[in-house]
Amino acid sequence: MSEQYKILHPVKYYRDYLAHNIRPDGREFDKYRPIVVNLGSISTADGSAIAKVGRTTVVCGIKAELCQPKAEAANEGFLIPNVELPPLCSSKFRPGPPTEQAQVATQLVADILKNSECLDLKSLCIFPDKLAWCLFADLICLDLDGSLIDACMIALMAALKSVRLPVIDYDPALDNKQANLEHRKPLNITNIPSSTTFAKFDDKIVMDPTVDEEDLSTALITIALRKNELCFVHKPGGASVTDEQLLKCIDESQKRAIVIEGIVETALRSLQ
Amino acid sequence: MDEVKLRCELGVLTRPDGSVLFSEGETTVVAGIYGPVESKINKTLVEKACVEAYFRPKSGLPGVKDRLNESMIRNVCEAVIAVALFPRTAVVVVVQEMQNNGQLISCALNATCLALLNSGIDMKCMYAAVTCFLDRSDSIVLIPPADEREIKGSFMFVFDSVEKTILASHTEGSFSIDQYKDALSLCREESTNIFNFFKKALTIK
Description:
By secondary structure, chain A is an alpha+beta fold.
């Protein structure tokens, strides 16, 4: 009976739950879903991780290639994220070129990485202007149930922490590269940025929305933090929020950031 | 504190229903609005108008960064235009970047607001976008420093004209929560200047 009610009157269905200060999945407004992280899932990749936020599942695989640095940044390597939303993850997507949602998600992940400065690109350079590492980070969503950016960031940071790059001996005069595949070194990751998504519905703000809640919401806010500093506050239009609501969201995402950092560190120890 | 110089020319283009050439300091964009027009069949919404946004960079093919700008422009316009009045139609917003000195997204959003006002389409309120920068000496300024490397972070906020609540927010770089709050209040004060500029621009024409 409630299934039919949910399909016929989705807005009223959701509003009735919110009036009792609870959401359809039984959570309160400021409760987030359980997070699961697993490292080293893909043996053929240089670094990999799977992250689940509730039912949203994102796999991250990192492949390292050698390339020439750009002329305007001769002593920097590259870290290129790419978020894919295949038809598997949701009925909204069909096979074809990346949808706008996938492209926006890719740009958001790239922005958070750049703003947080978690990986110094200079450490990826082997020889200035001649040779540098280019890390391709592919994030593939297997199941889309809201909070896509949160799951992407957790999977990406866990995968980056698990990357082991071979040491390269490079002779610039002879242009000779020797890769020592036995001797591998981890990357120098200075901090773990994490993001939290909020959805606004009527005048209430809920944390960590599911995909049904995101579709019904009038605005979405994504906040990314590293340690105690904000590195990304993104509200792409939609209904307006008051200052108090926005600052409360920042507060709650600070608490969640500490939990996420702990989870990624624990998962790392299991790999070692 | 120096003020950002705003300049605009309404109705510069003949084909769009509303158009504007708008510049905020050294950042310049041209925006055009077509609406309400016929929408694509797969995008037609039964109960409201569908807002389409297109952002073209100064050079090169549009990339993922431009998709993000398009999504911001579309979401802000959807919240502000009275879409329920024009079902089964589309409002097309096109922005062409001319020059970028750091305030690109806010310049594009202000230009679209002026173009919407110029086109006469019904709106629930006006909106103003303000960008401010955090420089190396940890002070928050409205005018970007001449050297790009001096910029530690930038904040962009969009406020509505009725209650000055936050319609949109976008940041770059990392900063503390107090710096974010300071930037928010500075931008809110500056938004009054932008609304006054809009009113003057409309009455002069």
